[in-house]
Structure formats: C-alpha cells, structure tokens
Design brief:
Elements: E1 6-11, E2 16-23, E3 27-35, H1 37-41, H2 48-70, E4 79-85, H3 89-106, E5 110-114, H4 115-126, E6 134-139, E7 145-152, E8 155-161, H5 167-177, H6 184-192, H7 217-232, H8 239-265, E9 269-273, H9 280-293, E10 296-298, H10 302-305, H11 310-321
Parallel strand pairs: 1-4, 4-5, 6-9, 9-10
Antiparallel strand pairs: 1-2, 2-3, 6-7, 7-8
Helix pairs in contact: 2-3, 4-11, 5-6, 5-7, 5-8, 6-8, 8-9
Bound molecules: 5'-O-[(R)-(carboxyoxy)(hydroxy)phosphoryl]adenosine (KG4) and zinc ion.
Residues 115, 119, 140, 307 line the site of zinc ion (ZN).
C-alpha cells in the first residue's frame, strides 16, 4: 500500500458521465468521460430527463473503467468525491447516489464537491507550481461566468459575475441563431476560423456600475438584430464572419476584464476555467494580454476545461485533506453557491 492519497471522483452534473482516479491532488491516474452530446444534439440542447437516464446507464461503467485504468480497486482508494451541485438535479442525483452507495458498501469517506470549484481546480493538474492565492476567470454555461478570488485551497470569494447570460450560453444561443446547433461553443470556434473577426462590429458589453461584472445578453441581442436586418434587406449572411466577429467580442471582453481585475486587485497570477476556456482564440488573447500586463497566465488543457471527473478528484482531494466529510444524507443542490457547503 502506498501512502499517497487516492480519490475516486464521480461527475454527472450535466451531459457527461465521468469518473476519475486522482493521486495526491495533482496526478490524474485515469479520466473516463462518457459524453451524451450525440444524443442531445438531436434536440438542440440538453434534455434533463434523457441526461439522467443516460447517467444511470453509464455510471457503473465509467467508475469501473476509471478504477481499472488507474490500477486501483474500491478497496485501495482512500475516499470518494462527487459533484453535488450546481447542475441539473436529476443528473446530479445519479452521481450522488452512486458515490453514497460505494462509500457505504466500502466504508470509505465521502466528499461532496462543488462543480465550479472543480473547474477552478483543473488548473492544478498541469501546473504543479500553481498555488493559491490567484484570480480565476470561470467561463462555463448555465449562468456561470465568474471572477473568483482563490484565497486558499477550498477558500473562494466571488468578486464578479454575469448579470445575465454566461459566456458559454451566449456561444450556444448565437450558434443556434446561425443554424449551427448544439453544442454551440466548439462549432462557433471552428466556423470562426474561416471568417473575418473584424467584419462586423458587435458591442463590447459593459456593466456601468461595476468593473468586475459581465453581461452578454446585449451582445447576443445585437447578433440577433444583425441577422434580422440582413434577412429583411434580403442580404445573404456570411455566417463565418458572424461567428468570428461574435467570438472576438466575447474574447475581447473576457480577457480585458480578467486582466483589469487582476491588476486592480494586485494579482500576478490569473487562471481560466470552464468549457469556454478550451476556446483557442480566447486562450491566445489571454496569453497576449497577460504578457503585456506582466501577469502569469494559467489554463487547463481543453479536456480538463469541459466537464470531467479529474477536476472533481483534485478539488475533492483538497477538501478531503482540509477535513471536509459528507454524510450519507448528502443531497444534490442544483443552485449551490461557490464557497459554500450545503445539502
Ligand atoms: O464548463 P462546461 O463544460 O459546463 C458547465 O459547467 O456549464 O461549459 C459548457 C459551455 C457550453 O456553453 C459550451 O458551448 C462552451 O462551454 N464551450 C465553448 C467551447 N467548448 C465548450 N465555448 C467556446 N468555445 C469552445 N471551444
Ligand atoms: Zn462544468
């Protein structure tokens, strides 16, 4: 038996059923993801009931595979971490029930993990030098665009957030409007490569009373207005130019906000996390702006930006060594707030 701490992690908050084994918080021994994208594509977005059913079908399989690939067993792991919020309640419940059953049967400690805190912790996987404090810009779907002051392991303070849509939601809605379908982010990114990012001047959203908050619904409306106007005038829409110009507007706002916030708060380390953080144009702009500002920039590989269980294992490890333990009454909390424990 090694004295390394091995966490089995389970994630099922949206449309990926995932399990991973993480050693000592930084070393990913396995990372199994069963994506439901092909299924939800048919409906143009995630259908919660279908997501839950698929999680039920896949959860045992991903756990088995994660243990097998890591060369571990349920007996050799030290604790079980599971996402318990935020997310779709029926989807979360599947992972939570699985984790509770395994923890009960094998008498292992159970650690409920916050999904978005997991996204932040994805940065620790490939940056062994990264330690708190740092500033993290989280850009996901489902209302989650946040600037978070990562004060310490397990200590988070939200210093800015979106007032309306999350950046990922804006990608998904614009993708739908130009007929790209679900999932929007990767499709816009691919089409944008064929377009001119300066072709259309979309607004850079500002929130008047706060430097730290974001707003993306105005930009989304402006894209929709542009498309309507073209239709009314009988003009053909260059979808690649719309994708590229829209992406440029989002990336410009996110990167300038992130860097300005880091400067204002005196942070020399800035990380990004969440699905939109896998966007190449966003990463390139962050690299450029952080370099100009003399700020160290951190980002996870794309596979650790979108939903996965490895990030839950990392976050679960730090929670575990900080003494966090969940009872067998752990429940799914769909609206769980960053930096809080509930359920
Ligand atoms: O973090 P995430 O995987 O799930 C949530 O916790 O919400 O984020 C999903 C969001 C979706 O809105 C998706 O369109 C967006 O991330 N996304 C992207 C890219 N890949 C995923 N947005 C822009 N470019 C991408 N390559
Ligand atoms: Zn996520």
């Amino acid at each position: 038996m090694s004295d390394k701490i091995k966490i089995l992690a389970i994630e099922s908050s949206c449309d990926e059923t995932a399990a991973a084994v993480v050693e000592d918080g930084r070393c990913v021994k396995s990372n199994i993801i069963s994506s439901q994208i092909e299924l939800h594509k048919l409906y143009g977005g995630v259908v919660p009931e279908i997501a839950s059913r698929k999680h039920v079908e896949k959860v045992n399989f991903v756990v088995r595979e994660a243990l097998k690939e890591a060369g571990e067993t349920l007996d050799s792991i030290d604790a079980i971490a599971v996402t318990y919020g935020p997310g779709l309640v029926g989807a979360l419940l599947v992972g939570v029930a699985e984790a509770k059953a395994l923890a009960f049967a094998k008498k292992k400690p159970l650690v409920g993990v916050h999904h978005i805190e997991g996204h932040i912790c994805a940065n620790y996987i490939e940056h062994p030098d990264l330690e708190p404090p740092f500033l993290c810009l989280i850009v996901s779907g489902g209302g989650h665009t946040h600037l978070v002051d990562v004060k310490d392991y397990g200590k988070y303070e939200i210093i800015g957030c979106t007032r309306d849509d999350a950046a990922g939601e804006a990608f998904d809605k614009v993708a739908r409007a130009i007929g790209l379908g679900y999932p929007g982010g990767p499709k816009i990114e691919a089409l944008a490569k064929e377009g001119d990012k300066n072709a259309i001047s979309f607004p850079r959203a500002k929130v008047n009373d706060s430097k730290m908050d974001f707003s993306f619904s105005g930009l989304k409306s402006s894209v929709l207005n542009y498309l309507n106007k073209c239709e009314m005038k009988g003009e053909e829409v260059n979808r690649a130019d719309v994708a590229a110009s829209f992406q440029e507007a989002v990336v410009d706002v996110l990167s300038s906000h992130g860097v300005e916030a880091a400067k204002e708060l005196g942070y020399k380390k800035l990380a990004i996390a969440g699905g939109v953080a896998s966007n190449g144009a966003f990463r390139a702009k962050m690299i450029e702006r952080c370099k100009e500002a003399g700020i160290e920039f951190y980002h996870p590989s794309p596979i650790f930006c979108t939903d996965n269980a490895a990030m839950i294992g990392v976050c679960g490890y730090y929670d575990y060594i900080n003494g966090v333990r969940s009872g067998l009454d752990l429940n799914a909390v769909p609206g769980l707030k960053i930096g809080t424990r509930q359920g």
